Each structure stands twice: as C-alpha cells, then as structure tokens.
Amino acid sequence: MTGKNIKYKFNEDKILKEIQEYIDFTYEQHYSNNKYQATDIIIDAGHGEGFCLGNIVKYALRCGKKDEKLKELLKIIHYGIIAIHIEKNNG
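Request: output the structure for the sequence above.
Response:
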C-alpha cells in the first residue's frame, strides 16, 4: 500500500469492502459443510479458467433477470478474482 490519502471518485474503497463482505459470506455458506466445492475440483482438473470465464459470461447475460443486479455483479467480480488467482498460480 502506498499510504496515500486517495479520494476515490467512484467509491472504490467502499465497494471493495462490500466485495470482501460478499466473498466472506460465500465462504461461510459454501465451505461450512464441505471441505471441497465443485470449483475446487474443476480448478484441480485444469479447467478453472474456462469455468470462471464461462460463469462471468453467464452472470453478465442474466444480470438483473434472476437475482438482484448487485448480487449478480458481485458474482461476476468474485469469478474474476478466482480467474486472476488461477492465472497467477497456475497460468
């Protein structure tokens, strides 16, 4: 971190906190009962990037049609973060 006092034009600092809260919630829901989720198995099989990108497209195309728009945007971002993790660690 730079330690600079940045005045974010689009509230990125607050939105990043909201993203982290959403991801924390998904971990509480998904990982509370099982050690592994389907995403873990798909990544281990070498198909993680395509899986993540496919889910990004899926949620983008249906954004606001199934779940509330904000929830689907958070899902898109979460899959993007997972894709970045895969690229940095396995790509």
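The chain has a mean pLDDT of 92.
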